[in-house]
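FYI - complex with adenosine-5'-diphosphate, inputs then prediction.
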Amino acid sequence: MEPILKTINLTKTYDQHIAVNRMNMSISKGEIYGFLGQNGAGKTTAIRMMLGLVKPTSGEVEMFGEKITKNSFRAFERVGAIIETPGSYKNLTAYENLDIHRRLMGISSKSSIEETLELVGLLEVRNRKVSKFSLGMKQRLGLARALLHQPDFLILDEPTNGLDPQGIKDIRHLLLDLAKHRDITILVSSHILNEIEQLATKIGIIHQGQLLEEMNMEQLRQKNRHFLEVTVSNDQHAAFILQENLGIEDYIIIESGKIRIYERMDESMMINRTLVENCVDVAELVFHKGNLEEYFLDLTGGNAVV
Ligand SMILES: Nc1ncnc2c1ncn2[C@@H]1O[C@H](COP(=O)(O)OP(=O)(O)O)[C@@H](O)[C@H]1O
Ligand SMILES: [Mg+2]
């Protein structure tokens, strides 16, 4: 996969405080990368460096294979971004706001304005003043501005901040649609695990300036799968019974006498009975619900990410 963005030991220090600490991030084409971390973790600082708005103390950012400085206009032409709450001209309409942006960006075609308004669901209110907009509509307008020049890569810093559940859902569907049908790669930051979980294909967890973990959503779900844990008198024999009598293959012996079973968890009574009937004593049989939230809490030392 073609890398869209890479950071190499990216670091930003303010006086004695390290806001971003030797961060190595990588985003490939087509991904929706969820950048997750609690407030103050360093997300906005990292994103500002990606966009050439803040100069790294050390390390670097590469976008579309090019090293980023504040003058990397060729790369920036291919990027659309929202950082924190996007500002607009309140006394102008949505259409007028985008028209100003169109001229600033040197986009000749006016039709791009209506196309983009349609895309973000604001076409019908295009002639309404932004002062009359809800927060959700303002966020959509920000997104429209980021999309107007048809970027290949969207960078969105907490785009759902302050939105109600419906607004959050709308933005999520819009982003999923952009990734799927327009082939846009997306970096989206959030401090809310649940939002990232429902959106991202890859996740990067930042805590106190450090990227603690970066993995595919699929891998993460695997790691946090539900399982049945059986405590038995003889794990080898129990494993044999599971396999031979029940055809269960997806299990591991995690320690002496403890087996985790990852399939057919709704048949726990039958599993129990079969083991007992085959001379394996079952001391305990417990269902564990895989929980991403707990996983993150562990990872970030008990400081809530959610
Ligand atoms: N311009 C700045 N001057 C000093 N400290 C800053 C500045 N910008 C950010 N910080 C500090 O860097 C850390 C990371 O902030 P930020 O990147 O905004 O985190 P996030 O976006 O994840 O909430 C915070 O401790 C913040 O106070
Ligand atoms: Mg921030």
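Residues 90 and 131 are 5 Å apart (CA to CA). The chain has a mean pLDDT of 92.
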